[in-house]
Amino acid sequence: MTGALILDPHLPLLVIAGLAMLAVLLTGYALWRGLAGWLPRAAAAFILLVALANPSLQQEERAPLTDIVIAVVDESSSQTVGTRSAQTAAALARLRAEVAALPNTELREVTAQDAPGDGGTPLMAALAEALAEEPRARVAGAVLITDGQVHDLDLAPQMPAPLHVLLTGETADWDRRLIIRNAPAFAILGEPVALTLRVEDQGQVPEGVGGTAQLSIAVDGGPPDWYDVPVGEDLELPVTLPHGGQNIIQFQVAVTDGELTDRNNASVTAINGVRDRLRVLLVSGEPHAGERVWRNLLKSDPSVDLVHFTILRPPEKQDGIPVEELSLIAFPTRELFVEKIDEFDLIIFDRYRLRGILPTSYLENVRDYVTQGGTVLVAAGPEFGTADSLWRSPLADILPVDTTSRVLEGGFRPKLTDLGQRHPVTQGLEALGPKDGWGRWFRQIEISARGAGQVVMQGAEGKPLLVLAREGEGRVAVLASDHAWLWGRGYEGGGPQLELLRRLAHWMLKEPDLEEEILTALPEDQTLAITRRTVSELDPGPVTITLPDGTTTPLVLPQIGPGHYAAEFAAPMVGLYRLQQGTLETVVAVGPPAPKEFEETIASGDKLAPIVAASNGGILRIEAGTPDVRAVGEGRMAAGRGWIGITPRGAYVTQDIRVAALLPGWAYLLLAAALALTAWLREGRFAMGRQRAL
Asked: How close are the terminal C-alpha atoms of the chain, in Å?
């Protein structure tokens, strides 16, 4: 129980102060006049003023509150290396025992784990949340058990009591890490792109560890190539992407005996391979309504360099016009089909017929160009079944069709074959047409597929309309009609002309997304979206997923469309995942290229030192022993060798308050009356004495 003197005035204090001033003035006047009773009168006035102020005695019954010590335990990934987990457990157990031994003190424990999205260690956020949940008047101190690698220092709260750090790790720790300083998201196919790498040592590097390290580079999970690289220097590494689309490049530094962890020895980067400019050669055998279809399609793509020649006049026509006036520029056949043929990504023969413009040797060059990786598209018209057809040239060796001289005239609606519903070039095209179906075409050349030809569309009388094939390392396609332009004009509702021709052209150019047999995996946070596309009617079976730690798990992909299978896989850890299904294989990286938790693994209190110093706390290494906990006065240094201090706050809760006046009102009146009577008597005696003297 505690007591205190308080005032509970009957009148406002301002009124009482005015009365006090008046009493002082009257007392001064009496003293000036030499009145004998001035002192008792002043005492009576004082007693009356005290009575008006009503001094009272307040008594409180208080219950003391415990002091609170907050312990924030770092449970991030970097705390799992070495002996840090054991050190953390030992320090926390000792802290619990020390706080329990202190009178009127209790411990609050919170943990800080990896922040989502590679946010690192949110230690300050955990401390701020713990402080917000407790009355600041009761917080006697806080202890952080951590390796000191904190990634949210800007969220550090203002401490009402000492803050201490118990540092895990060993002073002899050292580590080697790989840093990717610069990795572009895109690169041009066929051109080297520069990546900046650095191999760096941290901590107490032991003697005998050389100044070089072994670095391996693997693309798309293939066999790695090893190189000796210097340590502590930036390396400019030129990389040429092998294919379009996403290229997964994995870098790894060989593990050295004694280093703290190998979690930061590897890094994965994904670079999308894009073509700089697509060079397309379009040769139109004669002007016709569908000629502009190909030209408009190719010219509408800014990434395409189009070289287009239209043969307006056959060489055998003799009308007396000088040769130099037949065209604005001469058809550079030798330059295009001999010297620079390998520079083209795609060659299109649009209703071309043999007229002696291209010698047999040039067409043989085109055939060899395809087998060595080039692509040729034949858009056929009525000439394809004649004696001067390309089918009767050396190109017949690579064309996947046989032809007759029959031209099918009359309206028909193109439709997808069973294979076409699964093939990426035509899959889903039916949904892009009008509700009543595609518009009709009116001419088709009779062909039949041969060899490895894939019939994805059929037309009149169920005959093949679009045939695709792979020849050697290249690709060939034959479109057996010159009426695709009717779709572009919207005849009878039209059809997906541009989408069909765009997919066809990009399949010819070997775009990865249009491969017939493909297994892909796209990461999103910790989930893999796995897709399998096939033109086979058979179920491809489960996908075998190899996790970063080497374990494998099968995953069955449900069918979501013709030849289309997909599923999602929750990745249990970050790292490189390898997916395999039959002969198909792909790799994908989950999580950041290099986790922030392992960018710096050497335990250090340097980052936390300013915050700790501002609260008079201390930073102690657990390897030197777990410290004692002592009580220290507020504002004093709260850490020393082998000990840390907390500041008792003396917080309490008031249970009862009682207020009683010092004296009852009648006592004040009695005292004032007695003093006034004394003053009257003294003044009367003084007056009688003066009369006798006179």
From this structure: 65
